[in-house]
Design goal:
The complex is a heterodimer of chains A (259) and B (326). Chain A is of the alpha/beta class and 259 residues long. Chain A is built from six helices and 13 strands. Chain B has two domains: 172 residues, 3-Layer(aba) Sandwich (Rossmann fold), CATH 3.40.50; 118 residues, Rossmann fold. Classes of the chains: A alpha/beta (259), B alpha/beta (326).
Chain lengths: 259, 326
C-alpha cells in the first residue's frame, strides 16, 4: 500500500526564541531551528508501521518555505521513501484556506491508499486543514485515530476514533484520509543507517505552477499584533511540613473561591 | 437591511445533549451580537437534534434544528460540516462560531474547505470591532496574537473555559429546518461505539484538574490523584511521561501532543513543568504544585508551590479538604 503523510516543519517548541516578525507578523523562521511537527511524527510512525506490516511505501508531502528540505530529510531518515515539497514565494504567510487548497491540489496528482496527517501543528495549532483537504478531495475522513487497521479483503480501513467516553470504531473505503494522535505509538529515532540513506532519497520540489489547480488565494485572515501575555503573579513558596502546608493550600483555594 | 447574522454551531455530546463547549460559545456569540447589533442564531444538526436545540435556545434567541438521520451510524463531522456549509451558502450568515475541540475542528475544517471561508482558531478572547477581533495564544503561550478576517465572513473556533456559560434572560425559539439534496461527501460508517470501562471525566471542560506526572512513581500513584480530583469535583490529568509509562490513558494527557486546558484550578503533583506540558496548562486561572524539587520549572510559574513529598503533602491536602467538607 502507498501512504502519503502530510508533514510540516515548525519552530522547535523546546527553544525559547519563537517570534513573529514585527513588520508583517509572520513567523520568523530564521530565529529558531525547525523540527518536524510532533503530531506529524506520530502520523509518520503509524504509516511506517502499516507499510512494514502490509508492504508498500510512505511518501511525504509538505508545503513549506525553501529551507524545509533539511527538516524533511529527518522525516526521510525515519523511513519514508521519498518526499515532495511544495514551495513558492507566493505561499509565504499562507492561511489555512490556501494551505488546504494547495495540499489538495498536490494530492490530486499523487497515488495513494491512505493520507495520514497529524492532529494539529505546534505553531498555528488550527487542526482544520486535514478535514478541509478530505472535503475537497471527497475522501472519507477519519479523525482522532488511536488505531488504524487496513482490511485487505474489503479494501477498507478501520480506525478507532477517540470519543469522550471511549472510542468509536469507524470503517470507510480506501483511499481515505486519517488524522493521527499520539495514542498510535511513539515515533522511532532515525538509525544511523536511516540517516545515511536519507541523503540519497528523492526529495522533489514543486512550485505552484508545477501543480495543476494550485494557486495562492488572497489571505482570509490578518494578524494585527502580537505581545507576550501578562506575566503570572509571583509564586508563593510553601516549605512547611505536610499538614501545615496542606492547611495553607486549602486556605489559598478558599481565598481564590475554588472551594 | 440589517447586517448578516452570527451563527453558533451547537455540538452534540455522545448522549445527544448539547456539549458544554457550545453553551460557552453561544454565550460569547450572544455578547458579540449585542455589541454588533446582529442576530445570533444557533444551528444543531444530528439524527435527533431536538434536545440539544432546546438547550441551545436557552442561550440564543433563535435555533435552527436540522434532522440528519445519517449521523446516527456514521461519523458526524463530515456530515454536519457538509450540511452546515450548504446552510451557510443558502442563508449567508457572516460569521460561524464553533468549539475548538475535536468535533468543532472537524466541522470547521469541512465548512472552510467547502465554502472557502477563513478560520481564526483557538480563540481565548473575542471582541467586536466591525467584525470579530480574536486573541489566540501561540507558541505554547509565549505570545498572544490579535487577528481579524480580511473580508466580512469567517469561522472562529473557541477554546473551552474562555467564557462562563450564562443563559439569556429570555429563552429563544427552535425551528425545524431541512437542507435539500443528498449528502455528497463520502460517509464513514460507525461499526461500533465502545465505552471504556475506565473512562474518566473529560479534562477539556473541567473546572478543576488534578494532574500527576513522573513523580507519582507508578499507576498506583494515580489513586491519590483520583481521590483529590473527587474531593475537588474535578477531573484527572497527566503528563506525557505518565501516559507513555502506561499509568493512565492518552485521553487524560495534557500538553503539546495532548490536550490544551484552561481550568479554574490546576493542581499538579509530581510534575516538573517542562515546556511540552506547560503549553497545555499555563492559562489555568490558578496553578498549585507539589514538588520535591525547588528548582523544577513549575516552581517558577505556579501561583503556589509546596516544596515537599507529594505522598505526604497530597494525603494531607485530601484530609484537609475532607475535613472542610465535613
Amino acid at each position: 500500500m502507498r501512504i502519503v503523510v502530510l508533514v510540516k516543519p515548525v519552530p522547535d517548541t523546546a527553544s525559547s526564541g519563537e517570534r513573529l516578525r514585527p513588520d508583517d507578523w509572520r513567523l520568523d523562521r530564521a530565529a529558531v531551528p525547525a523540527v518536524v511537527n510532533a503530531n506529524d511524527e506520530y502520523a509518520l510512525e503509524a504509516a511506517l508501521k502499516l507499510t512494514t506490516a502490509h508492504g508498500g511505501d510512505v511518501v511525504l508531502l509538505s508545503m513549506a518555505p525553501p529551507a524545509a528540505p533539511e527538516t524533511m530529510r529527518k522525516a526521510l531518515a525515519m523511513g519514508a521513501a521519498s518526499g515532495t515539497l511544495v514551495t513558492d514565494p507566493a505561499l509565504a504567510g499562507s492561511d489555512t484556506v490556501t494551505t488546504t487548497r494547495v495540499l489538495a491540489a498536490a494530492l490530486r496528482g499523487m497515488e495513494y491508499d491512505l493520507v495520514l496527517a497529524g492532529a494539529d501543528t505546534s505553531d498555528g495549532g488550527a487542526g482544520v486543514v486535514p478535514a478541509g483537504v478530505a472535503a475537497l478531495l471527497r475522501l472519507p475522513y477519519l479523525s482522532y485515530a488511536a488505531k488504524i487497521e487496513p482490511l485487505k479483503e474489503t479494501e477498507t480501513v478501520r480506525v478507532h476514533r477517540i470519543s469522550p467516553t471511549g472510542y468509536d470504531v469507524l470503517e470507510a473505503p480506501m483511499p481515505a484520509l486519517v488524522v493521527c494522535t499520539q495514542a498510535l505509538g511513539e515515533p522511532r529515532y532515525p538509525s544511523l543507517k536511516g540517516i545515511m540513506a536519507a541523503r540519497s532519497k528523492e526529495l522533489t520540489t514543486s512550485a505552484l505552477a508545477d501543480i495543476e489547480g494550485a494557486e495562492a488565494a488572497e489571505p482570509t485572515t490578518a494578524v494585527l499584533g502580537a505581545e507576550a501575555p501578562p506575566p503570572r503573579a509571583a509564586t508563593r513558596v510553601v516549605r512547611e511540613p505536610a499538614e501545615e502546608a496542606a492547611k495553607q493550600v486549602v486556605a489559598f483555594l478558599v481565598e481564590r473561591r475554588i472551594v | 437591511m440589517a447586517a448578516a447574522p452570527i451563527w453558533v454551531h451547537g455540538e452534540l455530546a455522545p448522549d445527544g445533549s448539547l456539549a458544554k463547549i457550545s453553551t460557552e460559545v453561544a454565550t460569547l456569540a450572544r455578547g458579540l451580537g449585542e455589541s454588533a447589533g446582529r442576530d445570533v442564531i444557533g444551528v444543531v444538526i444530528g439524527s435527533d437534534p431536538a434536545a440539544a436545540a432546546t438547550e441551545l435556545a436557552r442561550f440564543v434567541p433563535r435555533v435552527l434544528a436540522v434532522s440528519e438521520p445519517a449521523t446516527a451510524d456514521h461519523a458526524a463531522g463530515t456530515i454536519v460540516g457538509e450540511r452546515l456549509g450548504a446552510l451557510i451558502e443558502r442563508d449567508t450568515p457572516d460569521y460561524l462560531f464553533a468549539g475548538a475541540g475535536p468535533e468543532g475542528r472537524d466541522v470547521a475544517g469541512v465548512v472552510s474547505g467547502l465554502t472557502g471561508r477563513g478560520v481564526l482558531v483557538n480563540a481565548v478572547a473575542v471582541r467586536w470591532e466591525d467584525g470579530p477581533v480574536v486573541e489566540m495564544s501561540v507558541f505554547g503561550g509565549k505570545l498572544t496574537t490579535t487577528s481579524r478576517f480580511t473580508g466580512e465572513q469567517g469561522i472562529v473556533t473557541v477554546r473551552p473555559n474562555v467564557v462562563t456559560a450564562e443563559p439569556a434572560a429570555k429563552t429563544g425559539s427552535v425551528e425545524a429546518t431541512s437542507v435539500d439534496g443528498e449528502l455528497s461527501l463520502p460517509l464513514v460508517k460507525v461499526v461500533d461505539r465502545v465505552e471504556a470501562a475506565d473512562a474518566a471525566a473529560p479534562i477539556e471542560e473541567a473546572r478543576v484538574i488534578v494532574a500527576g506526572g513522573r513523580g507519582l512513581g507508578g499507576p498506583d500513584g494515580f489513586k491519590l490523584i483520583e481521590e483529590l480530583a473527587e474531593a475537588l469535583g474535578g477531573a484527572v490529568g497527566a503528563t506525557r511521561a505518565a501516559v507513555d509509562a502506561g499509568w493512565i490513558p492518552y485521553a487524560q494527557q495534557i500538553g503539546q501532543t495532548g490536550k490544551i486546558v484552561k481550568p479554574a484550578l490546576y493542581l499538579a503533583l509530581g510534575i516538573s513543568g517542562a515546556i511540552q506540558h506547560k503549553v497545555g496548562m499555563q492559562t489555568a486561572d490558578t496553578i498549585v504544585a507539589v514538588n520535591r524539587d525547588p528548582d523544577a520549572p513549575i516552581a517558577e510559574f505556579a501561583d503556589l508551590v509546596v516544596i515537599g513529598d507529594l505522598f505526604e503533602v497530597g494525603p494531607a491536602i485530601l484530609a484537609a479538604l475532607r475535613a472542610r467538607a465535613g
